[in-house]
Write a structure and sequence with these properties.
Pfam families: Glucosaminidase (PF01832)
Helix content: 10-25%
GO molecular function, one term: hydrolase activity, acting on glycosyl bonds
Number of helices: 9
Protein name: LysM domain protein
EC number: 3.2.1.-
CATH topology of the largest domain: Lysozyme
Largest sheet: 5 strands, antiparallel
Enzyme class: hydrolase
Length: about 700
């Protein structure tokens, strides 16, 4: 799939919060980091596969972590460019790469100017310091002097100030992954506290010391959505709950006796145009009064968890009934909230009932000081009976789409037209059909209502039951997993006049997330196979462990991947706003990176043969993680190498090439060494780019074998 403009914007948006967090912690310019990330990787497109190395930092002798070898372009002093193999650092994720980027600069003496006073934290000066230190070697000819000059600083500034970066930053700010806060500090007499040291605790676990600037401001504090910041100055702690926001927020920190408002001033546009934060005095019941602000009250904490998994429920909406008053509250991103009330007083917790009102009672308890009260939200069950428009006929085996906690899933009614839904009390569920018609509006799980009878608004005919696709034949270690969606054809939509409505195919997308089955963590460069409309294709997950695919809505797809010693097969029906498909893949020891294999083949090949097929395929094979020991003297002898590296021979009948496949021709006649080539996803390549799989056309007696690696 081609890397699009939207992919570029999404890459910057995806790392925006992490970049701001690292920049604030290390006192460096976040603008420099973002500009470098875009410049070094082509906005995410050219991240070296399998590395998560945003800044393409090489692995020299000082690097003790994981590394991998890649063929890259290098600029020489005379202005020429050549390709060379180099080792590059590997990171588990982008956050680790961002942290190491600053550490790398700190540990290299040649970048000392970057961290000097008057440079550190100022974008344009940091960019120039990187160029002066030789961070990048690319030069361009100065038209006035005719000399080649370094242009790295100009490139970074141009990238950051361009319209694409502005769009990407706006997307990152509005993603809801973090909130950026600027805080101004005022004394009791409302005077600015300039050059004041403040200890900041973010979300309860990140402690940073900062000094206010000449305007008494600390800029760029990064907090989770609905998170908490505590400011400690002069041995007084002032807490503030920060709401989720789609643009930087400005807050005023005053004397400790004044509670901090959790509804803060929000502005639109470029943050740099508005330097001085302003105060908004509006407060809510989630504010935390300062110590001794109200006598007789004690503090305790409420935490909400799922009843069946004990997982925290983030941003949970609930009600507290206290002193004959009901108030709605929202827990933070950890499912927690700090509450102040009279010791021993009775508190009752309510969640939304079936109609969305706070009347569903969950728990009642008496207040105790400094106690963490964990409340388990129970599972409720709803049974829905789907009838036709006249409410006379049950719609059996009917395709329904349920939406619960932001996730959509395919479901099918039973023969009697019923469907059972389960969910946490107080959470809503909505039912629709693929055409978009709402069958059941958002209804909250409530123990008082356990049954609904819903009629369709248009005329429909019950579809004849369509058998699911027959199981794929087991082949060796290949097995069939459970059919995920029971794909039933539903061509029964009719208009008011009873005539069938032609269903027009609609383009959609679905995302695949690849996890290592051993660690259950997102992992990049894992391969899986997708069968769509009878066509099979091998894909490799991107650097984030995720990959987006295009597909028509309501079409069936089949995904194959390695689990243990078996190849699992899963079936899905694609729907709109489909939640990511998560697959847990077993990675073979050593592994073979098909994408790097293909990339290296393409980089080294030419248009004509040089008689060096074995050497060029071996170079790509080794770059991808393959082991060649001992090294064969001829191409045909690589059959043993394939077997030693856990490649399996592919049946030639009905064969369709896939990326990473290797084709070996046995020796014949005057061709005493045979031939070997690899498939890069679009063509066969050895030391040259072949026009087809068989370069010896007209010789049907040639013996050849095809090998494939299943990771």
């Amino acid at each position: 799939m081609a890397y699009t403009y939207e992919d570029k914007l999404n890459f910057i948006a995806s790392i925006y919060c992490s970049v701001r967090r690292v920049a604030f912690k290390k006192d460096v310019s976040w603008e420099t980091i973002l500009a470098q990330a875009a410049q070094e990787t082509g906005w995410g497109e050219k991240i070296l596969i399998g590395t998560n190395n945003i800044f393409n930092i090489k692995a020299d002798s000082r690097w003790k972590g994981p590394k991998s070898k890649h063929l890259v372009w290098e600029d020489k002093p005379d202005g020429t460019r050549v390709q060379e193999y180099h080792d590059f650092r590997n990171y588990k994720d982008f956050d680790e790469a961002l942290e190491d980027r600053v550490k790398f600069l700190e540990e290299n003496q040649r970048y000392h100017k970057f961290f000097s006073n008057g440079v550190r934290g100022i974008f344009e000066r940091e960019a120039q310091a990187l160029e002066d230190a030789g961070y990048a070697t690319h030069k361009e000819r100065n038209k006035a002097t005719g000399k080649f000059e370094l242009v790295y600083a100009d490139k970074l500034i141009e990238v950051f100030r361009g319209p694409s970066m502005r769009r990407a930053i706006a997307r990152g700010e509005s993603s809801g992954q973090c909130t950026i806060v600027n805080a101004v500090f005022l004394d009791d007499d409302n005077s600015k506290e300039v050059n004041k040291e403040v200890e900041i605790v973010i979300d309860g676990n990140i402690k940073i010391k900062k000094v206010t600037d000449s305007n008494a401001i600390i800029k760029g504090i990064v907090v989770k959505p609905n998170g908490i910041i505590s400011f400690k100055k002069d041995n007084i702690i002032v807490p503030a709950k920060i709401p989720s926001a789609k643009a930087p927020l400005n807050i005023k920190i005053t004397k400790a006796s004044t509670p901090i408002a959790d509804k803060l001033d929000q502005h639109n546009g470029n943050p740099s145009k508005r330097e001085t934060p302003v105060e908004n005095s509006r407060q809510t019941q989630t504010s935390i009064p300062a110590p001794n602000a109200d006598n007789g009250l004690v503090s305790f904490k409420i935490k909400f968890v799922e009843h069946d998994t004990n997982k925290s429920i983030e941003n949970f909406s609930y009600g507290i009934f206290y002193k004959n008053k009901m108030k709605e509250h929202v827990a933070d991103s950890r499912g927690e909230e700090q509450i102040r009330a009279e010791s021993g007083a009775k508190i009752t917790i309510y969640v939304k009932d079936f109609s969305g009102k706070l009347t569903q009672k969950i728990e009642e308890f008496n207040v105790q000081e400094n106690v963490l009260k964990t409340i388990k939200i129970p599972i409720r069950e709803i049974k829905v009976l789907i009838m036709d428009h006249s409410s006379t006929k049950a719609m059996g085996n009917y395709h329904i789409i349920s939406e619960y906690r932001g996730l959509k899933k395919n479901k099918y009614t039973r023969n009697d037209g019923s469907i059972t839904l389960k969910g946490l009390a107080g959470f809503g569920v909505k039912l629709t059909i693929p055409s978009g018609q709402v069958v059941l509006p958002e209804t909250y799980f409530d123990n008082k209502v356990s049954f609904y009878k819903r009629a369709l608004f248009e005329k429909y005919e019950q579809p004849a039951f369509v058998k699911t696709t027959p199981p794929l034949k087991a082949d060796g270690e290949i097995v069939v997993s459970k059919n995920k969606t029971a794909p039933i054809s539903q061509n029964d939509v009719r208009g008011n006049n009873g005539h069938p409505i032609k269903l027009v195919s609609k383009e959609g997308t679905f995302e695949v997330e690849t996890y290592l089955d051993t660690t259950k963590a997102l992992a990049s460069n894992l391969s899986y196979e997708i069968v769509y409309k009878g066509q099979s294709r091998v894909h490799i997950s991107g650097s984030t462990g995720r990959k987006l695919h295009k597909c028509e809505i309501n079409q069936e797809i089949i995904i194959k991947y390695k689990s243990g010693t078996k190849i699992l097969i899963e079936k899905y029906t694609v729907i709109e706003n489909m939640s990511p498909i998560k697959i847990y893949i077993t990675k073979s020891k050593g592994g073979f990176n098909k994408a790097i294999f293909a990339q290296t083949l393409r980089a080294n090949s030419t248009a004509k043969s040089r008689g060096l097929c074995a050497m060029y395929v071996r170079l790509a094979f080794e770059a991808a993680g393959g082991k060649v020991n001992p090294r064969p003297a001829s191409a045909y002898q690589y059959v043993r190498v394939m077997q030693d590296n856990e490649f399996r021979e592919v049946d030639k009948d009905g064969y369709t090439p896939q990326i990473g496949d290797i084709y070996i021709i046995d020796r014949f006649g005057s061709h005493v060494h045979g031939h070997i080539s690899g498939y890069d996803g679009s063509q066969w390549i050895s030391d040259f780019r072949q026009k087809g799989i068989n370069i010896y056309r007209g010789r049907p007696t040639i013996s050849y074998r095809i090998f494939r690696y299943y990771d």
